[in-house]
Amino acid sequence: MLEETIRQIAIWALPVLAAVVFHEVAHGWVAYRLGDSTAARLGRLTLNPFAHVDLFGTVLVPLVLILSNAPFVFGYAKPVPVNFLNLRNPKRDMIWVAAAGPVTNLLLALVCTFVWKTIAPMLDGPPDAAAGGNYLAAIALMAQSGILINVALAVLNSFPLPPLDGGRVLVGLLPRPLSAKLARVEPYGFLILIVLLMTHALDYLLDPPTEALLKLYLRAF
Question: Do 52 and 185 contact (CB within 8 A), yes or no?
């Protein structure tokens, strides 16, 4: 039992860490390119995970999900600080900065799909059957986990509720009177999100695009 738990943590930990770190660095890098150097000055434009790890979101949430045998695992890192007022065109550039995170996760899911489809045929059996000590099988399993994690993060973050990335994209797209009203929801956004997650109301909205994307990736290459 302990050995299986350690194996599951090892298989999920690296993909979760990579997904959340690349997600946050993408926000900061695009903001830097568009005029805001806040993340760069604070040393957050780095792939060093220690600069981004959040004890609750990067460690405890994924660990609880793994130990409870959840169907998939996700987490989050410390948000990269962005001062939208420093952007050359704050309302327009906000869209690109916010969209950078989910787009990066979709690209990582594509990389994971390529790795998984390259390695899986080399194994004698399914990756889960061959995983005991076979490093190729372990990489295949991590790639498989990476597909699920990155797709789930991309879809969840695309939900149009501030402070999620989809909400900030919508704030940038809407006319000013409507965008100002939506922006005022941001302080309550996470509370609303938790309620939607706990009541499973969000499942009806997020499951269809998640399943559609997974099918699309599995057909790739």
Answer: no
Query: Is 186 an annotated catalytic residue?
Result: no
Catalytic residue among 3, 24, 186, 211: 24
d(CA 65, CA 82): 30
Encode pLDDT of 149-163 as tens digits.
999 999 999 999 999
**Tokens (6 digits) for 221:** 């290459």
Picking from 131, 138, 120, the residue whose alpha carbon sits closest to that of residue 218 is 120
Report d(CA 96, CA 108) in Å as an integer: 18
Give me the residue spans of the domains in the chain.
2-116+146-218
Contact 146, 109 (CB under 8 A): yes
Q: Which residues contact 70 (CB under 8 A, 6 or more apart)?
A: none
Terminal-to-terminal C-alpha distance of the chain: 36
Render pLDDT for 75-93 as a digit per residue (tens, 0 to 9). Answer: 788 889 999 999 999 999 9
* Residue partners of 202: CB distance under 8 A and separation at least 6: 159, 193, 196
What is the Cα–Cα distance from 199 to 51, expressed in whole angstroms?
Answer: 33
Quick check: pTM over 0.85?
Answer: yes
